[in-house]
Specification:
Elements: H1 7-43, E1 51-59, E2 75-83, E3 88-98, E4 101-110, H2 123-136, E5 142-144, H3 147-157, E6 160-161, H4 181-192, H5 198-212, H6 215-226, E7 232-237, H7 238-247, E8 254-260, H8 265-279, E9 283-288, E10 293-299, E11 328-333, E12 336-341
Parallel strand pairs: 5-6, 5-7
Antiparallel strand pairs: 1-2, 2-3, 3-4, 7-12, 8-10, 9-10, 11-12
Helix pairs in contact: 2-3, 5-6
């Protein structure tokens, strides 16, 4: 038979009865705190491996190398992209600002030997393209182009575009930075503070998917995207070929290689054909990066030529874009090719 509890034992039992639930509450609360902490660590991006550092700002006349004198109201911000880990500047970026327009990247000068974040283009090509759009396209026309080209044409020409935000698709970074991918995307989105809507992302997916479809299906998809009975122009650049290859490798096999100009163009062409034969590539197109450097983009197989974008670009040993009946070629400058889509 158990003995009855004394007064002291009763008090101790009462204290334990109060302590145990309190300990349980503390343990549960501590568990939630740990869960929140681990969740924050898991979903919060780390630090991007590079930094934008503002060098100088001014109107377009301060940066004659960009050839943007036709836009005197444009404010240019020049940045250098610095990698603290190696204490090295890897690129220069030029952002343009106008009234009621958020900053838009207008020029990117890569100082490395590999593509990094953006692909280089000659600045003169963009200013000439904008002037051609002003000449050929009605004020209310729609321009369909890659998200970076779209934003550039919006700020320079005021034309309607579907993509005004920096979508960063595809994200072009070295393999050594892949683990910091989320941090890079987060850092890039902070630079211009332009939110990206789900609608814009969906439309861009439709646009890029159309460029990888067979010609007739792709053109139909672009017309559907632009809307009925609307004057629409399609702008493509040779670098779009490479970016599409990164996004849809199963549909478009693309490789690239840089070549130094030696003055012997026939020798370089012979070398390109040897490269194609050795690797089994189907065709190629060229992009002039500077007076000394040329980049070749190769289609790695014949099936890649059956996509919509391939015949729109000047690929060796293939019918030139000038021979196309539809879409109608209306302008070409450097790496840019502009087509009018029939309604």
């Amino acid at each position: 038979m158990s003995e009855p509890l004394t007064t002291g034992q009763l008090a101790q039992a009462s204290w334990l009865d109060k302590l145990l639930p309190l300990l349980g509450i503390l343990l549960v609360t501590g568990g939630f705190i740990l869960l929140i902490w681990f969740t924050w660590l898991w979903f919060t991006p780390g630090t991007a491996p590079y930094r934008y550092q503002l060098l100088e700002s001014g109107d377009s006349s301060k940066f004659p190398q960009l050839e943007l004198s036709a836009w005197p109201d444009l404010t240019i911000d020049q940045y250098e992209i610095h990698v603290p880990e190696i204490d090295q500047v890897v690129a220069h970026a030029y952002f343009g600002r106008r009234a009621q327009h958020k900053p838009v990247l207008l020029d990117w000068q890569n100082l490395t030997s590999e593509p990094l974040l953006m692909l280089d283009r000659k600045p003169a090509e963009l200013s000439a393209l904008a002037a051609a759009i002003d000449k050929h396209a009605a004020a209310d026309a729609l321009i369909l182009a890659w998200w970076d080209t779209s934003a550039q044409l919006a700020i320079l020409t005021g034309r309607n575009v579907l993509f005004r935000s920096p979508l960063h698709e595809p994200l072009i970074i070295p393999d050594s930075w892949q683990a910091q991918r989320a941090a890079i995307l987060n850092y890039e989105s902070q630079q211009v503070a332009t939110p990206v809507s789900d609608q814009e992302r969906t439309q861009f997916q439709r646009f890029t998917h159309a460029l990888t479809q067979p010609r007739e299906a792709g053109l139909a998809a672009l017309r559907e995207l632009s809307g009925p009975a609307r004057e629409t122009y399609l702008v493509v650049h040779v670098t779009d070929l490479y970016k599409l290859g990164l996004m849809y490798p199963e549909k478009l096999g693309v490789a690239y290689k840089n070549y130094r100009m030696t003055g012997n163009i026939h020798g370089m062409i012979s070398h390109l054909k040897t490269e194609m034969g050795r690797r089994g590539y189907a065709t190629y197109t060229l992009q002039s990066l500077s007076d000394e450097l040329i980049r070749a983009f190769f289609l790695t197989d014949e099936a890649s030529y059956q996509t919509l974008i391939a015949p729109l670009l000047p690929l060796t040993d293939r019918p030139p874009p000038l021979e196309l009946d539809t879409p109608q070629l209306i302008y070409q400058q450097g790496g840019y090719w502009v087509y009018k889509l029939s309604t």
